[in-house]
UniProtKB/TrEMBL annotation:
Keyword hit for Membrane: yes
Main location: membrane
GO cellular component terms given for this protein: membrane
Keywords in alphabetical order: Membrane, Transmembrane, Transmembrane helix
Topology class, membrane: Multi-pass membrane protein
Protein name from the UniProt record: Polysaccharide biosynthesis protein
Coiled-coil features, chain-numbered ranges: none
Subcellular location: Membrane
Length: 417
């Protein structure tokens, strides 16, 4: 029998694999400037998701494990209505800001609108996935991820096929809009089908009583607001560089930079997937005292060698390989792939040690370390962006590196004498 954890990991890998599968296609279709613009507007949607979603998936999961299935539909419905309301507020604000400041900030109001829809769609899909995961419906979870991935790819290819060769070569805004619209429609298809199946197959009832919905919205906000800082810290480290680069450098430069980040991101996807599968076994080993913190310290210190080795391997690859994979204009992305591969490899010791803190319930220490890392990231990013684009990856490298001595010290204090 296939374990549920393996199915969830497969679903996560499937959802994360779509950007990598489409990467060579998108770089050729959009060109460096168009791909840079796409990276910017998807980064904007990642920030908007924090405020539109308010970590509803966490609220749904907690409600189910505390109160059970009864009333779960109210949480999902109230969360969806709350997301739509927050989306309307954010969208109106961005439209006004785009018209007032669009020329100074090189913003496209239409693409900003698609970014808000992208964040809303992601929030609705995440909520539905949370319903399946907390009820341990692993195959339903995988099916939704598969539907989202296939419709995403299919709609993107279909939309681009209708574009003229001239627009493809120019990487015009309508190409970026087509890609964003494809993602939004894929999310809409997945969310609508998931809602239908939730009511028909899972037997979850929805109540439209205003008082109950209002109470549940307050419950979601009470749980979600404290998590905004944590989510913002995480998103800043993953997306702020693209927003910053887009404002300080050309879209073409951002395109090469973003392609390198995305290609190197395959490393972090694999590491995070392995971590998701390994955490239950690691916790069991902690409980049975089969693994000591001292041993994890040794493993973490040894894994530090992976960063320079992996970066060196990428750097020794022929430059023409990246031009062949992504397109001739993206050959310079090799430098960024090497830099971010080194930075992402530092996730190995980080995850080994942070799981110790999670196991012992040291959430405050984890949050404090994350905030410290984010402050380092923002400071280094602000400084390096005034020098040259090639120094910007140092922000991610420095922020990941500064976490390690902090976590080592915090976990050392847990080890019994």
């Amino acid at each position: 029998m296939v374990k549920d954890s393996a199915i969830y990991v497969a679903g996560e890998l499937l959802s994360k694999a779509v950007p990598f599968v489409l990467l060579p296609y998108l770089t050729r279709q959009l060109g460096v400037a168009g791909f840079g613009a796409l990276a910017f507007y998807t980064a904007v949607s990642a920030f908007l998701l924090i405020f539109i979603s308010l970590s509803q998936n966490a609220a749904i999961t907690r409600y189910y494990y505390v109160y059970g299935k009864h009333g779960l539909g109210n949480v999902v419905l109230a969360g969806a209505l709350l997301s739509v309301g927050l989306w309307a507020v954010v969208a109106c604000g961005l439209v006004v800001a785009g018209k007032l400041l669009g020329s100074q900030l090189s913003l496209n109001t239409q693409l900003l609108g698609y970014s808000t829809l992208l964040a809303l769609g992601q929030s609705l899909v995440q909520s539905q996935l949370a319903v399946r995961q907390c009820q341990k419906r692993a195959w339903d979870y995988l099916a939704l991820q598969l539907l989202l991935a296939t419709s995403n790819v299919g709609l993107t290819v279909m939309f681009f096929a209708t574009m003229t060769a001239g627009h493809v070569a120019d990487g015009a805004d309508d190409q970026v809009a087509a890609r964003l619209l494809a993602i939004v429609l894929a999310q809409a298809i997945t969310a609508c089908l998931a809602w239908l199946l939730m009511c028909m197959r899972l037997g979850i009832r929805l109540s439209w009583r205003k008082r109950r919905l209002w109470l549940v919205m307050r419950y979601i906000v009470a749980l979600g607001l404290p998590l905004v800082l944590h989510a913002l810290s995480y998103t800043l480290k993953g997306q702020l560089d693209r927003v910053w680069v887009y404002q300080r450098f050309s879209a073409a430069e951002l395109g090469v930079y973003a392609a390198g980040v995305q290609l190197a991101g395959a490393v972090s996807v694999v590491i995070m997937a392995v971590n998701s599968a390994a955490v239950p076994y690691l916790y069991e080993a902690f409980k049975a005292r089969r693994v000591s913190i001292a041993r994890l310290h040794r493993w973490g210190l040894m894994s530090l060698l992976l960063a320079p080795v992996a970066a060196g391997v990428v750097w020794l690859l022929p430059r023409s390989l990246f031009g062949w994979l992504l397109g001739a204009a993206f050959a310079d992305s090799q430098y960024y792939v090497a830099c971010f591969t080194a930075a992402f490899m530092l996730l190995v010791p980080y995850l080994l040690w942070v799981n110790v803190l999670f196991y012992h319930g040291k959430n405050r220490q984890i949050a404090a370390a994350s905030v410290c890392s984010t402050l380092v990231y923002v400071a280094v990013l602000a400084y390096t962006s005034t020098l040259a684009l090639k120094y910007v990856p140092l922000a991610t490298l420095a922020s990941n590196a500064v976490l390690l001595p902090l976590l080592y010290h915090l976990t050392k204090r847990i080890e019994p004498a």
